[in-house]
Amino acid sequence: MTSLLTLFTADQPNNSAAVRPLTRLAYERTLGHAMPICAFRASRQLLTSHGVHFERETDDLGEYLISRFKVGAVLAAIQAYVDSTPSQFNLYVDVPGCRPAKQDPFAVASTLLVALGLRNVAIVWSNDELQQAFSTSPTPARPKLKGPVTFSFERKPTTKPELMAKKTKPLGARQHKMASAD
Amino acid sequence: MAGETLPASSARGKDQSHQMATTIYHRKVGGRNQTLDTALRQIHTREIWGGLSANNQAAFAVKALRGPLPSNTDGVEFETDVAPTPGCSTPAEIFWYNDGTPGVSLASDGNHAAIPVKIRLVRYTQNNIPPVGIDWIP
């Protein structure tokens, strides 16, 4: 088991203002693709006492509890199937949604848990496939940020006099002109 | 975190590009669709279907649990050599999204994802079935 702080960041500040609960409708309307970031051990009572309000829903695998959030501009959810491992919850983050927001999904997960006051829950699993993608640089999952791009524009000669002038212009003329201007 | 893996000799299919070692999964009774009728259709079509999941409203997903069907639990146990969608599964639940994941197709009704499977065990012992129940192994 790894503690949350060692798995994510050493001194994650509590940015609870960036976290707000989200309705199912608002969550689903975004068409995000939340992927599991980690699984942690906590009782439902503990989560409820920290302000996590679960909804009970069913899909074709079974009944599950889910609580949806927006962390900054990124969707996240805490979810557990009712018949799954007791007192173990999965934390999902909309990974494609992290790219335009320039967020690391693991940092989003960390922000959510810290904001909920769940700093000390035991992380029992983390998504290695995603973690590998985000731990190396440059990463395939992260947007490749390019440096500043500069443009130069020079109109190509099109008329006959212009073409002739270009042909007859001696090499170094520009430098000579600049030097003579001094 | 893989399910129970079978020997390579049991892998099926001709297209090897999307395949991994055949692995065992199960689905328990209790979901929205895993009824006895569904199980019979799964045997007949040799496919497991899945609808939308809570965390992705843009693609259908086949969902299952890792490993063999636990004893005294009703449901189906199956094997498939289609690899789950990378990065989408949890320690317990497996997801095959119809988002370009090799081997995952759109089901014939257009509203589900589908993967080819071989059903290994069907066990329905409760609720609206003959008194003797069904415990089927091919």
Tally of individual domains of chain A: 1
SSE arrangement of chain B, N to C? EEHEEEEEEEEE
Tally of domains of chain B = 1
Overall radius of gyration of chain B: 14 Å
Residue ranges of chain A: pLDDT <50 for 5 or more in a row? 137-154, 172-182
- Fraction of residues in H or I helices of chain B: under 10%
Distance from first to last alpha carbon of chain B: 28 Å
What is the typical, i.e. mean, pLDDT of chain B? 81
Q: Quickly count the helices of chain A.
A: 8
What structural class do the secondary elements of chain A suggest?
alpha+beta
Biggest protein-protein interface? A-B, 33 and 31 residues
Arithmetic mean of pLDDT of chain A: 74
Biggest beta sheet attributes of chain B: 8 strands, antiparallel
Give the overall form of chain B: globular
Sheet with the most strands, sense and barrel status of chain A = 8 strands, antiparallel
Structure description:
The complex is a heterodimer of chains A (about 180) and B (about 140). By secondary structure, chain A is α+β, with helices and mostly antiparallel strands. Chain A contains eight helices and eight strands, in the order βαβαβαββββααβααα. Chain A starts with a strand and ends with a helix. With about 140 residues, chain B is mostly beta strands. Chain B has one domain. In chain B, strands 1, 2, 4, 5, 6, 7, 10 and 11 form an eight-stranded antiparallel β-sheet that branches. Chain B has a three-stranded antiparallel β-sheet with strand order 3-9-8. Chain B starts with a strand and ends with a strand. Mean pLDDT of chain B is about 80; it is low at about 5-20. The interface between A and B is medium-sized, with 33 and 31 residues.
